[in-house]
Specification:
Length: about 375
Amino acid sequence: MQTSTKNIPSTGLLTVDLKALVANWTLLREIMCRVNSSAICAAVVKADAYGLGADQVVKALWLAGCRVFFVATVSEAIVVRKSLGNEAVIVVFGGISHGLGNEWLQYSLTPMLFQKEHITRWLNYSVAKAKKLPYAIKIDTGMHRLGLSLSEFREACVEIKNRRWHEPWLVMSHLACADDPGHPLNHCQLKEFTEAVSLANAKFSNTCYSLVNSSGLFLGEPFLFDLGRPGVALYGANPTPWKQNPMNNVVKLQVPIMQVKTISVDEGVGYGMSFIAKRVTRIAIVFGGYADGLLRALNYSGFAYCSGVKVPLVGRISMDSMIFDVTDIQGEISPVIDVLGEEQSIDDLAKYAGTIPYELLTSLGDRYKRVYVPVERDSCYE
């Protein structure tokens, strides 16, 4: 993912490699299809595709063969529908808790239903519209977020069958500890979900089942079922923190140096003078701060790269700027600092900030100019 430093705008450049994104989805689809050649690899594109731009992301994934997309809200779903047309399946995690307006029918959206009364409301709505409107059911198998208990799901299955309502398109649950393969809850949830699948199979004939998220895809064949729902792994974050990242890097963030200056021993920088130079120090002041998703948690621990050299963040991050120690760079200093890229992944930066890649990706601000490396050709476009 090469970008000329001459083209870096004054507010920074966020480059999204759609080729790498598609390669990641393809790898995850291959995992899903090892057991069942007809298995589905969906894509979670909520929060504007984890901050990277849903319109561009879903179009690239659609061209690669992805046909099922998950979002959090109706408004997110409408964006995806307008980007892809009528054929994609779009599932809304928040379900009808966001209301039961005309958008569901107008944009052919599939709600995730996680309460019994929601199932009743949706199926009555379908009857009123004289349509078999698709829906998904979420079961709580131990994470204790949204979802029906196993006993509630059993009752729902009986009611759906007795009232001759149409069956759900999808039944799913969500793993709480998939990024820790040795955690005992993983197999407890698998056992609970397998029981739910047995209950459903006794009542329904065309329902598919989904348990795995990004990390869950790597827990082994018994967890895979019919549909995988990768999210953060698509965007390059490591779904297997216990070993080397199998995913391609998708995001590159470059911020411009606004000024380079030299400070003397015992001089400080930034608010509070929290950094005091112990040597004659060259510092680079760059655009980009906590207003742009570069969290203050990186204070005293963050690094970036300049001219191929790892440079430490010094002083406190401000709203619009950061300061790096570039003293150890020999020769000419590059006009940009590479915050994210091949040398520093989203996982690396998250570790320095004491957070997770999800938070950093979804916090990346809209002041960066975004360019996309397309799947079809080598040049970038905005």
